[in-house]
């Protein structure tokens, strides 16, 4: 019963000249990359046909000639100014003369050998002048002039040494005043002394803050539901522009 209906559903009959089909074909042709490049592909298959006097050919030839002339003269431009007419600068008479004059006028090179050799003094050890200088130095030397007869050696635990140290400590002004120098500038008061207690009591008596309390320091809170507060709120709401 449904076989003919199923076969008819599979077959679609669309007229080829309807506006929708024609528009779809035109859009497909517009967006087709193959049709867009078809003329270019056919032109490539035919090959290139350029005349010798074409503008691109003439431009390429002119660029080649300019580049060739630049490459040809590149070595010449680099070596320009280096030609002196001699195989080397040392063989040129003018350059050699200038170098010789500069070397003669250079004071540092002129005195180089002198400065190198002036610090190298070689005097024999047994020279007469050196021996005389040593003898003169020995005569005027104060170290050799003063010769101590002997050196005293005292043991640290001897009675006279201990007594001398104690006498030095007693007579020493630095040791005598060391405690004073250490205590100078240090203020010290006993916590429970009479002067400290008296100063505290006088401070409490003269303290005006403890004697009386200012009204602005009292903590208070107004009653929110008092009649005058409620009436003030009502009046504020009635007079409010908002």
UniProtKB/TrEMBL annotation:
GO cellular component, one term: Z disc
Biological process annotations from GO: cardiac muscle thin filament assembly
Listed Pfam families: Nebulin (PF00880)
Domain of life: Eukaryota
GO molecular function: actin filament binding
InterPro entries: NEBU/NEBL, Nebulin-like, Nebulin_repeat
Record keywords: Actin-binding, Repeat
Protein name: NEBU protein
Source organism per UniProt: Columbina picui (Picui ground-dove)
């Amino acid at each position: 019963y449904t076989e003919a209906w199923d076969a008819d559903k599979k077959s679609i009959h669309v007229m080829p000249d309807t506006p929708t089909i024609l528009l779809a074909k035109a859009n497909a042709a517009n967006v087709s990359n193959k049709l867009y490049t078809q003329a270019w592909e056919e032109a490539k298959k035919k090959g290139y046909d350029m005349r010798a006097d074409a503008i691109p050919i003439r431009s390429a030839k002119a660029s080649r000639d300019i580049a060739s002339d630049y490459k040809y003269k590149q070595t010449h431009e680099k070596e320009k100014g280096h030609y002196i007419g001699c195989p080397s600068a040392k063989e040129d008479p003018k350059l050699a003369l200038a170098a010789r004059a500069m070397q003669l006028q250079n004071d540092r090179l002129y005195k180089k050998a002198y400065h190198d050799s002036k610090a190298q003094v070689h005097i024999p050890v047994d020279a007469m002048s050196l021996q005389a200088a040593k003898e003169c130095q020995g005569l005027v030397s104060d170290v050799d002039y003063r010769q101590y007869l002997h050196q005293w050696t005292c043991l640290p635990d001897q009675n006279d040494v201990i007594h001398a140290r104690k006498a030095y400590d007693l007579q020493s002004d630095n040791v005598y005043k060391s405690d004073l120098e250490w205590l100078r500038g240090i203020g010290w008061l006993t916590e429970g002394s009479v002067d400290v207690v008296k100063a505290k009591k006088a401070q409490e008596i003269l303290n005006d803050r403890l004697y009386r309390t200012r009204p602005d320091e009292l903590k208070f809170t107004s009653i929110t539901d008092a009649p005058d507060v409620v009436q003030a709120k009502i009046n504020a709401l009635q007079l409010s522009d908002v």
